[in-house]
């Protein structure tokens, strides 16, 4: 019997239960897969807690990225066969041993990329891809600020941004995390617990400030992130690990230098099949060519998902974590 982690009622990590969950048979355009590794993301905690509404109501199987192998294909599926290694970053429902999933959501894992790497990087890596290449196309000479530099997205982002020729500034909350970020592409890392990150950004840039700020922290870094931007710079808010940004008057953007602001999500950026394929291909290329090293720093058994969530929310993890079915 296939097992899955389910949320029957919103709450803390303790609401994650390890249940029987038969996957069923694939229908037309669908594929039955067996997971070999599952990604762990802060986004998963938002759905577990109820901060984000469950896509299909409760009970909810969390998880937005995984890797595995094709067990069976339904009618009309082309380009995939039994035994193919695959990965995905949507739809939700990855915390399970087996599942049926639309074939159009899957991409093949190329040689040179392991299942664990793929599971650890699909959501995080394609998030870094759209942030760096499409939301604000970073180029050589740009100065960027990225909050939570030692997180899963941050470590991929730092390496990739440095490869693009940017000056990469990050924030982190401990000496260990600062060292980790610096080892992964960040030129400067500010300890937000000890220093005023706005003042440090001014010091680092000689008062020129940043072309773009990438902020997944939310409440605790707003509106300071806006004060790190040059006139007509871009504020990219793509998460809220400290809580949501409170409502604010749009005039604040004009007062702080005619700033741009956007709230993107990966799901919009890969909604079209061609965009998914292009994003995954760009990610696989930088990983297989050793531009980006995917570091898996924590591994948990699927049944221990509650501990994984507690560690993630308690900021006891660094880089990328995965669940092993």
Name the descriptors:
325 residues, alpha/beta, Quinone Oxidoreductase, Chain A, domain 1, Rossmann fold, 2 domains, 7-stranded mixed beta sheet, 6-stranded parallel beta sheet, mRNA 3'-UTR AU-rich region binding, oxidoreductase, ER
Describe the protein's topology.
Elements: E1 3-7, E2 16-20, E3 30-40, H1 42-49, E4 66-73, E5 85-88, E6 98-102, E7 107-108, H2 115-135, E8 143-146, H3 152-163, E9 167-172, H4 175-182, E10 188-191, H5 197-205, E11 210-215, E12 229-237, H6 251-255, E13 260-262, H7 266-269, H8 273-288, E14 296-301, H9 305-313, E15 320-324
Parallel strand pairs: 8-9, 8-11, 9-10, 11-12, 12-13, 14-15
Antiparallel strand pairs: 1-2, 3-4, 3-6, 3-15, 4-5, 5-7
Keywords: NADP, Oxidoreductase
Domain Enoyl reductase (ER): 11-323
InterPro entries: ADH-like_C, ADH-like_N, ER, GroES-like_sf, NAD(P)-bd_dom_sf, QOR-like, Quin_OxRdtase/zeta-crystal_CS
Describe the protein.
Helices cover 28% and strands 26% of the residues. It has 2 domains: 3-121 and 273-324, Quinone Oxidoreductase, Chain A, domain 1 (Alpha-Beta Complex); 140-263, 3-Layer(aba) Sandwich (Rossmann fold). The chain contains 9 helices and 15 strands. It is globular and about 60 Å long. It has helices spanning 42-49, 115-135, 152-163, 175-182, 197-205, 251-255, 266-269, 273-288, 305-313; strands at residues 3-7, 16-20, 30-40, 66-73, 85-88, 98-102, 107-108, 143-146, 167-172, 188-191, 210-215, 229-237, 260-262, 296-301, 320-324. It is an alpha/beta fold. The strands form 3 sheets. Strands 3, 4, 5, 6, 7, 14 and 15 form a 7-stranded mixed β-sheet that branches. Helix 2 (115-135) packs across helix 8 (273-288). The protein starts with a strand and ends with a strand. This is Quinone oxidoreductase. One of its GO terms (cellular component) is cytosol. Keywords: NADP, Oxidoreductase. One of its GO terms (molecular function) is NADPH binding. InterPro entries: ADH-like_C, ADH-like_N, ER, GroES-like_sf, NAD(P)-bd_dom_sf, QOR-like, Quin_OxRdtase/zeta-crystal_CS.
């Amino acid at each position: 019997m296939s097992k899955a982690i389910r949320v029957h009622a919103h709450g803390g990590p303790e609401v994650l239960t390890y249940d029987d969950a038969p996957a069923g048979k694939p229908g037309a355009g669908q594929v039955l897969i067996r997971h070999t590794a599952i990604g762990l993301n802060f986004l998963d905690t938002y759905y577990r807690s109820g901060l984000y509404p469950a896509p299909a109501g409760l009970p909810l199987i969390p998880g937005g990225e995984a890797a595995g192998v094709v067990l069976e294909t339904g009618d009309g599926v082309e380009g995939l066969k039994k035994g193919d290694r695959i990965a995905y970053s949507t739809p939700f429902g990855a915390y399970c041993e087996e599942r049926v999933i639309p074939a159009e959501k899957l991409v093949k894992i190329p040689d040179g990329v392991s299942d664990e790497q793929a599971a650890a990087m699909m959501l995080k890596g394609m998030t870094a891809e759209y942030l760096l290449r499409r939301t604000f196309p970073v180029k050589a000479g740009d100065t960027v600020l990225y909050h939570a530099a030692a997180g899963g997205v941050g470590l991929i982002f730092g390496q990739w941004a440095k490869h693009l020729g940017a000056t990469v500034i990050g924030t982190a909350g401990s000496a260990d995390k600062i060292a980790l970020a610096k080892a992964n592409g960040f030129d400067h890392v500010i300890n937000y617990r000890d220093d005023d990150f706005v003042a440090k950004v001014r010091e680092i840039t000689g008062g020129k400030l940043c072309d773009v700020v990438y902020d997944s922290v939310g409440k605790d870094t707003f509106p300071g992130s806006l004060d790190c931007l040059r006139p007509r710079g871009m504020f990219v808010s793509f998460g809220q690990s400290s809580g949501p940004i409170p409502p604010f008057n749009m005039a604040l953007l004009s007062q702080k230098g005619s700033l741009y602001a956007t709230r993107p999500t990966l799901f919009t950026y890969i909604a079209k099949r061609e965009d998914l394929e292009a994003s995954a291909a760009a990610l696989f290329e930088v990983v297989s060519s050793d531009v980006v090293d995917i570091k898996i720093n924590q591994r948990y058994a699927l049944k221990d998902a509650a501990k994984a969530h507690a560690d993630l929310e308690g900021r006891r993890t660094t880089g990328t974590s995965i669940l092993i079915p």
